[in-house]
Amino acid sequence: MCIFVVVKLLGLADIGSNLRDLWIWANLSWGFISCVICGVQWYLLTLIKVTPRICRVTEEDRRCLNINTDCEEDTAETEEDKQEEEVNKASVMRLLAYSKPDLPYLLAAFLFLTLSSTGRIFLPYFTGQVIDGIAIEKSQTKFINALITMSLITLASAIFAGLRGSIFTYIMARLNLRIRDDLFSSITQQEIGFFDNIRTGDLVSRLTSDTSTMSDALALNINVFLRSLITSIGVIVFMFKLSWKMSLVTFAGLPIIIIVSKYYGTYYETLSEKVQDSLAKANVIAEEALSTMRTVRSFANEGGEKSRYYKALTITYRLGVKLALIYGGYVISNEVFELILTIATFYYGGHLVITDQLTAGNLVSFILYQIQLGECLDAIGDVYTGLMQSLGASHKVFEYIDRKPVIFNNYKGYEPDRLHGRIEFQNVNFSYPTRLDTTVLKNINISIEPGEIVALVGPSGGGKSSLVNLLQHFYETQSGQILLDGVKIQNYSHSYLHRKISMVGQEPVLYARTISENISYGLEEEFSQADILNAAKLANAHDFITKMTKSYETETGEKGLQISGGQKQRIAIARALIRNPVVLILDEATSALDSESEHVVQQAIYSNVKGRTVLIIAHRLSTVESADRIIVINQGQVAEEGRHEELLARGGMYANLVKRQLNTLDMGSSKSQTDITASVFF
Ligand SMILES: Nc1ncnc2c1ncn2[C@@H]1O[C@H](COP(=O)(O)OP(=O)(O)OP(=O)(O)O)[C@@H](O)[C@H]1O
Hints:
Elements: H1 2-14, H2 22-50, H3 59-65, H4 70-98, H5 103-136, H6 140-189, H7 192-197, H8 200-242, H9 244-291, H10 293-298, H11 302-354, H12 360-402, E1 423-430, E2 441-448, E3 453-457, H13 464-471, E4 479-484, E5 487-488, H14 494-500, E6 501-504, H15 515-519, H16 529-538, H17 542-547, H18 565-577, E7 583-587, H19 595-607, E8 613-617, H20 621-625, E9 629-634, E10 637-642, H21 644-650, H22 653-667, H23 673-678
Parallel strand pairs: 3-8, 3-9, 6-7, 7-8
Antiparallel strand pairs: 1-2, 1-4, 4-5, 9-10
Helix pairs in contact: 1-2, 1-9, 4-12, 5-6, 5-8, 5-12, 6-8, 6-12, 8-9, 8-12, 9-11, 9-12, 16-18, 21-22
Residues 196, 432, 434-435, 440, 458, 460-466 line the site of adenosine-5'-triphosphate.
Transmembrane segments: 23-44, 103-123, 143-171, 218-240, 246-264
Subcellular location: Endomembrane system
GO molecular function, one term: ABC-type oligopeptide transporter activity
């Protein structure tokens, strides 16, 4: 109907009707009004489809009519859309606020953008002038003048475009730096429970791809959007100036192209999102397999992992096929509509040139403008999708940047000059945040004196590691408190607490750095080379380190994979000892050592414990028996406590476990004494 109105107007103008006649405009207005009414009707029809009216159908109707929950889905979808819109609005504001420090650069970039876009608008006009000068007027002066003007405009526009591009890229780099820094710092502040619940791959993709997509929003999409918008406005003005009749032909056909593009675009976008999601799932599978390649190899499960990955990829592939079909349909229909529009323009333009209503040069200019407008509208469409993607990504990034950790790390807390190392657990009850329904520690009351060596023993899963996790303030207790020298651990400064309490964990993590850097990890220049050597000697690591060709400068590889398990443990012990901690926690820290090395390390620890409280979690009898006190933890409770001999005499759980252990050893009478002391206790 729109096209009909336009064609009627052009036809009347062409047969020489007086366009000032009222009846002509009344007729055209009627056509236009009916067009609007038609649009409104279509809109109302679409609304009916998604109104929750069907939802008022009773349960009985639903059963009789076998109506499913589609209507609920529809309403849910509209709710979701609304929410997404709100989120996008908030993200735009946030993104703009984030760009505040770049305001001077942004203003400069926008200035150059306006200048370069304005320059580009004049180019087709002068191209037409050159053609008119050559072909119609055959005037050398006219075409040379037009050529010079065109060259100057092109040159200026190129310089401005270059300046615009580099400033936007610079802004993008600055924005990226700020966002990544803020995001990484926010993530590293989160409580340990947060990391229990989230995949590392997820966080890494926030840090890498989402932050890039997000800065693209500003530097790339907004740049392209504004550039295309300014050019489009200028182009439309020129088109109407050259020929209002031809402009009407162009704009009559344009809505069809826009509707087709939007229809396909929305569908394409939804499918693309699905492809991205399925690809992310496949990536998780690949990441898991690649990061555990040793385990995969040792179970010879390469085939299993391959087929898991292939299955995930097949989903992406199927979606990809659908996407390809949709894309094909889109390109064909788009090209056909564009062809129709071009033919209409040439046909009508040719008619205008032949009837002397338009010059040939102006026709060429007009067609160039038409192409430019098509490009700009295409770019605006693409930018919209890109902008939405960026906003989606920025929403996720801001969610992490804004997240307040559940456990607050006190950065300016209590820092006494001297710490004695008295530890008290008072009525502690604890569940992990990921499993709140399971109480891991139940009413724990333990008091450890400064300088005492306490061994925590008990069956696996009893709660020993959870106790030391709490002592390091990795988690918050549900009730009760943990005191260090009579002060709640949460009142201490974060860095002070972790300088005074050092831990060597069950699977010590080394970084892909040199041995020397691993031992001094986190110490920031407050140590000497002698300190590193001393700590390594205490941990019985010095000898094996100096035997390596690069000695302390040997790289340990990713997660310390280039050295043995026992060597890794000794470096981790040296890393704990260099801090000269008041409380030393060894959670199965010597389990990978042979009994000889373990003995040396233990001697080193025991002879250096003066003024140091040591908490040892161990399964080996040799490690446990020489402790000042043994605490048996079973099912989250303190089952028994006392010295080795006392507990043996008491004949309780500890004694039973020792007896059972020794019986097992008696049966293997060929074992040496070393084997006995090294054997697994619990
Ligand atoms: N991060 C966690 N999230 C949820 N539950 C956990 C977590 N870590 C441990 N648990 C659970 O808490 C309970 C106590 O585990 P903990 O590691 O403290 O036992 P443990 O005595 O140190 O065992 P082991 O001797 O095998 O190291 C177990 O049931 C375990 O499954």
